[in-house]
């Protein structure tokens, strides 16, 4: 684990168990976000910079940090057109260099405005940034605007992987729309050579005083320098867990429980008869998929483990995957919550994501609790997660980049399996409905959320379902 503040470090992750530290301490701070931060990607084209940029932004937004990606390529396409021949990127082409610098500075200006005028917290400046002069300009402009800079350099010399990345991403980009594949590959290959002639990697000596991390050979080796605060250490740890292997993540709720049938929240009840039927059919569904090396994760609650038992596979029970803790409202129906705690019930409807049950949890708490699960999911290949409605919402929000206002209302019906297929820039989703009836546990947000509302107004959406 590379969660070390204020140190230069290098981690060899071929077996993901070797970690080395250098000296050179820097001041540390326990706060997650001490100041505005600009994350700057560095590296040749087709090395996965935009993939990393988007993954980081999605992760940061999920944990509650306002983050936005500024892709300089998009600025170049808008300002000078999508297709530019390879000589546009040659370091001796002064006109091309000037235009690309203009695009970068326009994007960087928007970064500063986002951070200082629009209350953004982290910006990701996504570009090649392959020369020391370009990085000096970025550092100076950010320093003048009181913005910290953290560089992430992507290094890859695997020709097969680069070629695969070119085919998967670059050929489908607007840069080569309408151009023959062979011609596009030839042009992009020459563009790469142009960048290589001017490439100046981050250097342990020259860039000794900057904060940066290098990811080499698809995260097999990570080097980190001047990790100054808690957020930067979390970013390094997150990056250490990423891989680009093809994988599928299956997520479903447990089978229908006795408390589901009774309309009660939380608790630790057994499966209903229909829940057991779902578990049997889920086992057949999974075995028919014949997924190699599939791992099965459950919560430590009975209904989750009972659902997994029919798989006849080894499973791992996570406390982190347990349902949101309803505290004083645990095992109550919504009608009983309205009767006993009408003001609490109204406050929850006003801000469902941030509301915390008395002696219980909020969705914001649950996201924090699930962060280790996300880290481990990023490390794994194929996993089946049998969890609960609130947990499934949080996991789906991470992979599909949902806003916090949407998260707590994502529909996750019982007896439905979601297959998530993480791709370079998106996460594809397939939905499988297992043919076993179940109660509908979804409660939409009522129109009236004021504490003075009537019982009928508080329970309006439940009455509409019955």
Average pLDDT: 90
Strand content: 15-25%
Helical content stands at 40-55%
| Content-based structural category | alpha/beta
* Uncertain regions spanning at least 5 consecutive residues: 1-8, 12-31
Shape: globular
In what order do the strands lie side by side in the largest sheet?
A: 2-1-8-7-6-3-5-4
Cα gyration radius (Å): 25 Å
Count the DSSP helices.
17
Strand segment count: 14
Largest β sheet strand count, sense and barrel closure: 8 strands, mixed
First-residue to last-residue Cα separation = 50 Å
Question: What does this protein structure show overall?
Answer:
The protein is α/β, with parallel strands linked by helices and 466 residues long. Helices cover 40% and strands 16% of the residues. It has helices at 49-62, 72-80, 94-116, 132-144, 159-168, 181-198, 230-240, 258-262, 273-289, 302-309, 334-340, 342-350, 363-379, 389-400, 404-407, 455-458, 460-465, and strands at 9-12, 18-21, 37-42, 67-71, 122-126, 148-155, 212-216, 221-225, 249-253, 295-299, 315-318, 383-387, 416-422, 427-433. Strands 2-1-8-7-6-3-5-4 form an eight-stranded mixed sheet, sandwiched between helices. A six-stranded mixed sheet has the order 11-10-12-9-13-14, sandwiched between helices. The model is unreliable at 1-8 and 12-31 (pLDDT under 50).
């Amino acid at each position: 684990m590379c969660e070390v503040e204020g140190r230069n470090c290098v981690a060899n992750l071929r077996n993901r168990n070797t970690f080395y530290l250098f000296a050179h301490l820097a001041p540390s701070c326990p706060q997650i976000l001490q100041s505005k931060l600009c994350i700057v990607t560095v590296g040749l084209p087709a090395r996965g910079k935009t993939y990393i940029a988007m993954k980081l932004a999605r992760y940061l937004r999920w944990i509650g940090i306002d983050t936005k990606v500024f892709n300089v390529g998009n600025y170049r396409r808008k300002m000078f057109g999508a297709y530019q021949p390879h000589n546009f990127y040659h370091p001796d082409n002064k006109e091309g260099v000037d235009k690309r610098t203009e695009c970068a500075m326009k994007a960087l200006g928007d970064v500063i405005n986002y951070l200082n005028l629009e209350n953004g917290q982290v910006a990701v400046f996504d570009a090649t940034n392959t020369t020391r002069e370009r990085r000096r300009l970025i550092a100076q402009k950010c320093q003048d605007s009181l913005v910290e800079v953290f560089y992430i350099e992507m290094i890859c010399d695997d020709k097969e992987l680069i070629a695969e990345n070119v085919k998967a991403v670059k050929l489908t980009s607007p840069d080569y729309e309408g151009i023959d594949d062979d011609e596009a590959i030839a042009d992009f290959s020459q563009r790469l050579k142009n960048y290589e002639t001017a490439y100046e990697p981050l250097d342990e000596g020259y860039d000794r005083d900057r904060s940066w991390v290098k990811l080499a050979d698809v995260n097999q080796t990570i080097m980190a320098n001047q990790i100054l605060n808690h957020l930067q250490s979390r970013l390094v740890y997150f990056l250490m867990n990423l891989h680009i292997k093809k994988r599928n993540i299956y997520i479903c709720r447990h089978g229908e429980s006795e408390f589901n049938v009774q309309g009660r929240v939380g608790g630790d009840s057994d499966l209903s008869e229909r829940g057991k039927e779902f578990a049997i059919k889920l086992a057949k569904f999974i075995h028919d998929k014949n997924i190699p090396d599939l791992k099965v994760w459950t919560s430590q609650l009975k209904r989750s483990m009972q659902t997994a038992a029919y798989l006849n596979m080894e499973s791992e029970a996570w406390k982190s995957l347990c349902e949101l803790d309803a505290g004083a409202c645990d095992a109550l129906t919504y009608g009983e919550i309205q009767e006993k705690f009408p003001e609490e019930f109204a406050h929850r409807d006003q801000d469902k994501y941030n509301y915390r049950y008395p002696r219980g949890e909020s969705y914001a708490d649950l996201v924090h609790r699930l962060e280790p699960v996300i880290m481990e999911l990023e490390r794994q290949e194929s996993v089946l997660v049998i969890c609960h409605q609130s947990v499934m919402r949080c996991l789906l929000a991470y992979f599909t980049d949902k806003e916090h206002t949407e998260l707590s209302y994502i529909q996750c019906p019982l007896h439905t399996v979601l297959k998530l297929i993480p791709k370079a820039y998106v996460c594809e989703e397939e939905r499988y409905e297992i043919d076993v009836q179940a109660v509908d546990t979804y409660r939409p947000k009522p129109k009236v959320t004021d504490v003075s509302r009537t019982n009928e107004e508080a329970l309006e959406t439940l009455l509409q379902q019955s």
